[in-house]
Amino acid sequence: MPECAIAVDVLRATSTMATVLAAGGEAVQVFSDLDKLIQVSESWPLEKRLRAGERGGAKVPGFDLGNSPLDCTPETVKGKRLFISTTNGTRALQRIQNAQTVIAAAFINRGAVVKFVLEKQPETVWIVGSGWEGSFSLEDTACAGAIAHGILQKTNLSVDEIAGNDEVINAIALYCQWQDNLLGLFHHASHGKRLLRLECHEDLKYCSQSDTLDVLPIQKEPGVLKKY
Ligand code: MLT
């Protein structure tokens, strides 16, 4: 495990998590299993919990929310814990939960993530794109590149001094190619197309914004992220 693991699921889990905490949510608790989510959240007072379930981009029947950040308004989430399970993002977070530091990143809070990494100076950093059922994700890779690019911009380090593998160089190049048209990139992405088929156009627009939220979701106990 690295000193610092950064989970990325731009469309839409980590965008949703940043939005919930920025809107006053008490915490986000992640689950890969829906039944476990139900069981654990049962012990939480009704007025202090929200259950968000997404599979295949769609809301799971019987859950309060799907995985749209646009549903996470202050009126809905303030003071509540969001118990969330998504197709890939929450699984990625569970996979890295034993790292010393675990944070969640998207384009909307990229600046807060870069600031944290520069402040803490971890020896090793993994940026973990959630992808889709094990496959490559354009949007998550571009976001990883945005984080690496942000670190380069704020330091006088060379790319060879920060890149631990070829993937980082590739991610930076992808980000630099699309940084002025992230929504356009999402429209080429397989998961972006999936969400467009589900009429989630506004979600893509929201998730394509850069540095709009100064919030850093950080793991406080296994699977539980709060505002740093
Ligand atoms: C995922 O976990 O794969 C995504 O967050 C799914 C989605 O909400 O579109």
Molecular structure report:
With 228 residues, the protein is of the alpha/beta class. Helices cover 42% and strands 18% of the residues. It is built from eleven helices and nine strands. Strand 3 and strand 4 form a beta hairpin. D-malate binds next to loops.
What form results from the Cα inertia axes? globular
SSE run = EHEHEEHEHEHEHHHHHHEE
Rg over CA atoms: 16 Å
Give the spatial strand order of the biggest sheet: 4-3-5-2-9-8
**Gap between N and C termini, in Å?**
21 Å
Low-confidence runs of at least 5 consecutive residues: none
In DSSP terms (H or I, runs of 4 or more residues), the helix count works out at 11
Briefly say what this structure is.
The protein is built from eleven helices and nine strands. Helix 5 packs across helix 6 and helix 6 packs across helix 8.
Layout of strands and helices, then pairs:
Elements: E1 4-8, H1 13-22, E2 27-30, H2 34-41, E3 49-55, E4 58-59, H3 74-77, E5 81-85, H4 89-95, E6 101-105, H5 110-120, E7 125-129, H6 138-154, H7 159-162, H8 166-178, H9 182-188, H10 190-197, H11 201-207, E8 217-221, E9 224-227
Parallel strand pairs: 1-6, 1-7, 2-5, 3-5
Antiparallel strand pairs: 2-9, 3-4, 8-9
Helix pairs in contact: 5-6, 6-8
This protein binds D-malate.
Residues 9, 11-13, 54, 57, 67, 86-89, 130, 195 line the site of D-malate (MLT).
